[in-house]
Design goal:
single chain; mainly beta; four-stranded antiparallel sheet; three-stranded antiparallel sheet; 11% helix; 31% strand
Amino acid sequence: MSFFQNVFTGDFEGNWVLGDRQHSPKFVVKRNAGRGDEKVSAWAEGPYDLSGNDADGTSCDTLAIVYALTNPKNWATLAVDITTQAASAAAATPEEVVASLNANTTFAERFIASLATFPGGSKRVEISQKKPITEMRFYIQNGRAEEKLRFNARAGVAELPSYFARHTIVNRFTYEDCQNHLIALDIAGSVVDKNVVVNAVDYKGTGLGFDGTTEKEDWELLEGRSGLFEFQSGPSSNAVSTTETVIVYPAGAQAGDLAEKIVTQKDAGGAIVAKFSMPYTLTSGDLVTPP
């Protein structure tokens, strides 16, 4: 029930290990087809209006670059004002953006900005890291100047069960098996994230068709591929008066692990109207200890 973005050059492939260990549904977030291992390129043509705010109300004059040296889990953020060399922030050219980046001392220690060319001949901004991929990783944070330059325009976006939030960068220290690979997109709380989902394309630039207003529940994403979770209808035909919810999980499971949520609807006489067995991600409040 969540959208995720992949800003790196390798596909994310996650297996949802359910009751049938011989058949685990696979969920994929395609790679960022618009960048290289050590380089990112802008997909929007200049000049850029960096004078206002992004969709979440944060100034567009700053590009946020997230990078990790040696240890891929130790991410740091470098915020660079890319209008310092521009004659007008409302019409910053690619040449001026490159000059503003290279004029930043911290940026120049780790990266180099340069000009490349679109097929039509117009200039585009490129950013390359100075260390090889074995020693450094980086990506451009969504929002702010990224909303205008679009380095992440062809980053993979997909809808996955909430279970795979364990593999997001923000959870890299929370779960031992975290792949440190994904960015969770909050379409309800961030207009920037919602726009990333709405504008998502495949490697050819073809829109993926997400409307950015609805998210599927975990059980919908199963698409009937598991016999572990079941919905039961009937036999009662009377009015529903109450529901009962039970969380079932294996002994020793921890917050963030997969569990089963069983919701039972009953009528006024206590007869079962419907029963649902759904995938569920445990929270710390669900955990109980035997007496």
